[in-house]
UniProtKB/TrEMBL annotation:
<feature type="transmembrane region" description="Helical">
    <location>
        <begin position="36"/>
        <end position="54"/>
    </location>
</feature>
<keyword id="KW-0552">Olfaction</keyword>
<dbReference type="GO" id="GO:0004984">
    <property type="term" value="F:olfactory receptor activity"/>
</dbReference>
<keyword id="KW-1133">Transmembrane helix</keyword>
<keyword id="KW-0675">Receptor</keyword>
<keyword id="KW-0812">Transmembrane</keyword>
<dbReference type="GO" id="GO:0007165">
    <property type="term" value="P:signal transduction"/>
</dbReference>
<dbReference type="GO" id="GO:0005549">
    <property type="term" value="F:odorant binding"/>
</dbReference>
<keyword id="KW-0472">Membrane</keyword>
<dbReference type="InterPro" id="IPR004117">
    <property type="entry name" value="7tm6_olfct_rcpt"/>
</dbReference>
<keyword id="KW-0716">Sensory transduction</keyword>
<dbReference type="Pfam" id="PF02949">
    <property type="entry name" value="7tm_6"/>
</dbReference>
<feature type="transmembrane region" description="Helical">
    <location>
        <begin position="66"/>
        <end position="86"/>
    </location>
</feature>
<feature type="transmembrane region" description="Helical">
    <location>
        <begin position="127"/>
        <end position="145"/>
    </location>
</feature>
<comment type="similarity">
    <text>Belongs to the insect chemoreceptor superfamily. Heteromeric odorant receptor channel (TC 1.A.69) family.</text>
</comment>
<feature type="transmembrane region" description="Helical">
    <location>
        <begin position="294"/>
        <end position="314"/>
    </location>
</feature>
<keyword id="KW-0807">Transducer</keyword>
Amino acid sequence: MHTAEYSDISIALSQFLLKLSGVWMTMNNTEERRRIFAMVYTLVIHIFGLYLNLGDVYYSWNNLGHCTFLICNTLCIILAMFKVLVLNIRRTEFKDLVLLAQQNFWHFKYNHREKILFMKCRRFCKLWTITACSVTQAALAFYLITPICANIGKNKSDRILPFKMWINFPLSVTPYYEIMFAIQVIVVEQIGVSYLCNDNFLCILNMHVIYQFRMLQNRLLNLWKIIDKQTNKADYADRCYTALKKCIRKHQSLIEFCDKLEYVYTLPIFGHMVVFSLLMCFDTYEILLANVSIGTRLIFVFHMIGSFIHIIIFTYSCHCLMEESVNISLATYSGWWTILPMTETGRMIRKDISIIMMKSMRPCYLSAAGFFPVSLETSTALMSSTVSYFTLMRESSTRE
């Protein structure tokens, strides 16, 4: 593997977040024990987060704006926990996926043209990771800033927490208030980590596969140019066939990687597609209609911005994956294979090229549990559903 010579902030940060959630692969018993501890810790945090929000919903049922805020939090917690559980159930396949990426993608042993594409991929992944983490942290920060601002000028006995707890205990009194505030801060941060880590890493893997397909297209287009070095047609055909077989093995490995990526992430994608429109609807309601504080409104502003950026980048990457995998057929057909002599090697080259073209006509894609492939059209459909849900919710709240 080439992992020792590869260093990238997007991969390093994604690995750190996945380790905090208890999802990252392990290489020995010590790392496995740490992973199990992180996994149990993450599940306990999510269960406690569900208790905080659902308990508050029960006692605040008549307050539509506050209940919408709590239900949105609950959906995020359930979605994050679902994704973490799915990746833990399929952690063997997830480990194979990461090892394949380390062996075939994350290194610098490329030629000049391929290095240019690889650097573009690195820049895109770095920009995406920094943007996603920044927007997520901005949204989480207002969960903490809102109660701090609300407590200014209040007595110590009237202080409020980020999430109200309906228990008969003096939580507004020192030191219980500070202890519970710190616990809720930890809960918010851990849920944010588990909500972000899987989607962030999926987008990174997706972009690397896209650029690997582009590299393969360049190889297929350039493998015929060795005619400048060798004029003998029989020898030229042998050289082309040797280079073509390397491209075929590369194509097969990319298809295998896409199949593994689909198997590991198809259920998390489906969960996100189901919940996305509801989350965006609740965000829009809290921003435009609900009678909430400015801090709470800013939480949903950043959450909406992050969700919108994520769905656009993710569907764009899925759409590019389909296009670039199909473009292999065009790159193969555009070669100089028609001028090769009809020797045994020439006939084998023609046969293999026809197989590559037929194989490429079926695009690689990521689907939502097999129901539909994800593309840019998916994002427009989700936005349309969001507008429909928001219109229905606005009319219902107006009648009330």
